[in-house]
Design goal:
The protein is mainly alpha-helical. The protein is 73% helix and 7% strand. A two-stranded antiparallel ribbon has the order 1-2. The radius of gyration is 36 Å and the shape is rod-shaped. Residues 1-5 have low confidence and may be disordered.
Amino acid sequence: QITEDREDPIHPNRKGEKMTTKTKTYDPDEELEALYAAISRRPAFSYDPGADPVYQSYARRYAQDGLLAMRDTMGQAAALTGGYGSSYSQSAGQQRYDEYLRSLGEVLPELYGMAYQQYADQGEALRRDYDLAFDRREAEYRRGLDRENRDYARRQDSYKTVSYTHLRAHE
């Protein structure tokens, strides 16, 4: 970690007070380990409609629409009997409500597919992040190796120059 003291740019009238910021140095191996852990410890896919806010929204809407359809159907049936409710109107209204709830069940495969796609996309994003981190680490390694090779070549050139000068001096 690097600690840097500098003047506070937000409160310049605090003369003499130092602002301390801490920045973490980049460690490619640490990043790779964290990404690998996130990938390998990722739980298997599961879908719980009760925990899915999209499903909950559909459920509320279908229940509301079903209730309205039930009331409408019961009202229409009651109108046929002179405005009095009957077991027929209750039965017809309940059937209409049940139809709406069954149609909610037909939405489940689509919601399951959307949830699975989101899970798969997140997994793919983790793998891409891992690949990018790996490539960054490899590039840093190659840059370091190139730097060492250049330094070695410079030392070799210096050694040759010194050796040649030394030999020339003793001729």
